[in-house]
Amino acid sequence: MSGGPAWAERAAMKTAKSALSWTSAMRTPCGGLSAPPARITMTDDRGAPTGGDWKPMAETALPPRARRIRAGLIHAGPIHAVLVAAFLAAAGGLAGCVEAAVGAGATVGVAAMDDRGVGGVARDAGLATRVRGKWLNYDLETGDTLAVDGSVKVYNRRAMLTGTVKSEQIRATAVRLTWEVEGIDEVINELAVGDTSAADSAIDSWISAQLTTKLTVDKDVHAVNYIVKTESAVVYLIGAAQNQAELDRVLGHARSVARVRDVVSHIRVKPAGTPEEPKKASR
Q1: Higher model confidence: residue 115 or residue 204?
Q2: pLDDT tens, residue by residue, 124-179
Q3: Does the residue 117 lie in any domain?
Q4: Counted domains in the chain
Q5: Which of 15, 79, 131, 253 has its CA 20 to 30 A from that of 223?
Q6: Do 195 and 77 fall into the same domain?
Q7: For the whole model, what pTM was predicted?
Q8: Is residue 128 domain-resident?
Q9: Which of 142, 156, 226, 152 shows the shortest CA–CA distance to 190?
Q10: Domain membership flag for residue 4
């Protein structure tokens, strides 16, 4: 690809600017505008400003170093500014409004149909956001890309980690940081170590979409109780099945999707009439 490092820097800055502008201007589903924003100052590799101070949205669960970047106290290189922008958009724009809706006593929608209830869904979303915040802070301190390469899904306080990271040290760090989040009862470590550029995200997204559709249209599956994540054509599932028959249907659907290489299930079957009790464990 032509342009070399200069082209990559310009592309990263353009992405950051677009993400931050969108986030700043966005009206949240909860109503109203974001709180008064601060600045992220973009710099080149020598620390010289590259132009433009872009405003992210209101205060979210940003980790310490990211908050300092957001406040303009330290400079951010292009790639890490993109990470901060993405975190602001995802954590502030989604999790914050879910929690606000719960606080207002919302009882309708998909979350209400989930066995966890609206409060449980919001709790798990908050836990996942705090895990991502710790990962992002680690990246900002070390220059790694854990927050980009890894993924965390939380169901009933059980955190499932997936993705491909660059080293065993980063893999171990991801697990350690996840355990540091108060409220996490189990860490399921499915992180692989290898070439982080090898995955085909388009195919993975297509597989997840196909499976989600299959689960949704199956009247014998309570689809809202399952979280689907696909990495390198391997489908990872976490959630709660009403019974063994439902679990078998879910796994059958997953295996029937074209291009799926494997299916890894962390679904628990709920005892009849008994709510699921998460246990503290790690693998």
Answers
A1: 204
A2: 999 999 999 999 999 999 999 999 999 999 999 999 999 999 999 999 999 999 99
A3: no
A4: 2
A5: 131
A6: no
A7: 0.65
A8: no
A9: 152
A10: no
156 and 75 in one domain?
no
For residue 150, the model assigns a pLDDT of 96
Domain limits for position 200? 148-283
| φ, ψ at 156 (rounded to 5°) | 50, 45
Report helix, strand or coil for 231. strand
Residues 91 and 189 in one domain: no
* Secondary structure of residue 270 in the 3-state scheme: coil
Give ∠ CA 232-186-106 in degrees, rounded to 5: 90
Residue 194 lies in a domain: yes
Angle between helices 244-256 and 201-217 (to 10 degrees): 140
More confident residue, 235 or 84: 235
User: Which residues does 283 contact at the CB level (< 8 Å), separation at least 6?
Assistant: 187, 188, 189
Residue 136, CA distances (Å) to 4, 81, 87, 150, 151 in order = 26, 11, 8, 11, 12
* Alpha carbons 97 and 31: distance in angstroms, whole number: 9
Claim to verify: residue 15 and residue 75 sit in the same structural domain: yes
Same domain, 161 and 265: yes
On whether both 162 and 250 belong to a single domain, the answer is yes
Residues 6+ apart with CB under 8 A from 90: 129, 132
Nearest to 13 by CA among 92, 93, 68, 75: 75
> Which parts of 102-255 are beta strand (E)?
150-155, 158-165, 186-189, 192-193, 226-231, 234-241
* Model confidence pLDDT, tens digit, residues 13-72: 444 444 444 333 333 444 433 443 344 444 444 455 544 443 333 344 555 555 555 444
Residue with tokens 């082209």: 7
